[in-house]
């Protein structure tokens, strides 16, 4: 069964070789990689590091970590997506809704739509609802099934019928993942580990042990994200 990990941090605290060793150990074919929030806060070069390492490790799928200025670089065309993490807010505590009325937000959305890449959006529930409404057409992946932005059930219920909103499984419990599959189906759920905060093998095991059809496991572990990122091989 092919596997893509949708949620892996890459930087000074977790090196390319450490990630590759873990991927080989657990049979993971590709990984979406992006900067650590703590490193991004102090070093604007982290996106360059992610891109450089992804050029070497072709199994890496680089996502651009958005800074507070919302600017996308000239090299943005080399990134396959965006990681948005509590921009101008307080991580895991309070989002900053004023970002969504900043003129630079529209420019950001236009460029993301033009590139046709997904955004892994980690914010609280209210911000996420407003972001999806204002960034119509942008494909959004909510990490942790919404766990770190509020109640997973709130996120699932609100976005159940919004086809452009996906969920990654990182750090969510097996029960939450299973209930989400029952509510959504398997077509908009993707596997993620949140490595190193989640251990790849343990996070993968949660999916493999779910009492669901093998076809649904294939969708979650590979097919859904491969389709979203237009991966053909």
From TrEMBL:
Q: Where is the Amidohydrolase-related domain?
A: 24-231
Q: Which InterPro entries match?
A: Amidohydro-rel (IPR006680), Metal_Hydrolase (IPR032466)
**Example GO molecular function:** hydrolase activity
Gene3D superfamilies, A to Z: Metal-dependent hydrolases
Pfam families found in the cross-reference section:
Amidohydro_2
Residues spanning the signal sequence = none
The identity of this protein, by name, is: Amidohydrolase-related domain-containing protein
Q: Which organism is it from?
A: Thermoproteota archaeon
């Amino acid at each position: 069964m092919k596997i893509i990990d949708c949620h892996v941090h890459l930087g000074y605290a977790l090196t390319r070789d450490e990630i590759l060793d873990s991927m080989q150990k657990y049979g993971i074919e590709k990984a979406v990689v992006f900067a650590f929030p703590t490193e991004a806060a102090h070093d604007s070069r982290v996106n360059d590091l992610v891109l450089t390492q992804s050029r070497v490790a072709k199994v890496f799928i680089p996502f651009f970590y958005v800074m507070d200025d919302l600017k996308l670089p000239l090299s943005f065309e080399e990134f396959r997506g965006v990681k948005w993490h509590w921009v101008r807010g307080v991580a895991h505590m309070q989002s900053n809704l004023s970002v969504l009325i900043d003129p630079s937000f529209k420019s950001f959305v236009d460029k993301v739509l033009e590139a046709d890449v997904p955004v892994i959006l980690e914010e609280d529930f209210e911000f996420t609802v407003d972001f999806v409404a204002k960034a119509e057409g942008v494909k959004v992946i909510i990490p942790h099934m919404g766990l770190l932005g509020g109640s997973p059930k709130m996120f699932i219920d609100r976005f159940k019928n919004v086809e452009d909103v996906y969920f990654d499984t990182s750090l969510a419990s097996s029960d939450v993942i299973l209930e989400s599959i029952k509510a959504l189906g398997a077509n908009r759920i993707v596997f993620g580990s949140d490595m190193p905060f989640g251990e790849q093998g343990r996070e993968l095991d949660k999916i493999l042990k779910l009492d669901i059809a093998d076809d649904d496991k294939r969708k979650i572990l590979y097919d859904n994200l491969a389709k979203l990122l237009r991966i053909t091989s």
